[in-house]
Design goal:
Shape: globular
CATH topology: Rossmann fold
Radius of gyration: 20 Å
Order of helices and strands: HHEEHEEH
CATH class: Alpha Beta
Distance between the termini: 48 Å
Largest sheet: 2 strands, parallel
Length: 104
């Protein structure tokens, strides 16, 4: 290895985040965070009653079309922190099932 390559690699590793792929936060998790903080907008989540301002004790989520392993992992992490979320869906997608459903 050349010295220039080693220096370039060290500079690159210094300025890049450690785990690029773990920075993504699914929309489901952002929505659940807002729900547990009591900050959901009624215009985005209409219902028969007003959205309560106090945080719920538990939330049931069912996704028609399926959930991903990443969403299930993040929900499991939330459950480990004392928040109770039950996640369900018509299927659990991996990259192949997701792309085949898009193709149909």
């Amino acid at each position: 290895m050349s010295v220039a390559y080693i220096i370039f690699t060290n500079i690159l590793l210094t300025f890049l985040p450690y785990q690029v792929y773990t920075q993504h936060v699914p929309l489901l998790i952002q929505t659940l965070d807002a729900a547990f903080k009591g900050k959901l907008r009624e215009s985005n989540f209409p219902g028969t009653d007003a959205i309560p301002t106090s945080p719920p004790k538990s939330i049931l989520v069912f996704v028609v079309g399926g959930v991903t392993y990443e969403e299930a992992t993040k929900v499991a992490e939330m459950n480990g922190s004392g928040i109770k979320v039950v996640l369900g869906g018509t299927t659990v997608h991996n990259s192949n099932t997701f792309l085949s459903e898009l193709y149909e």
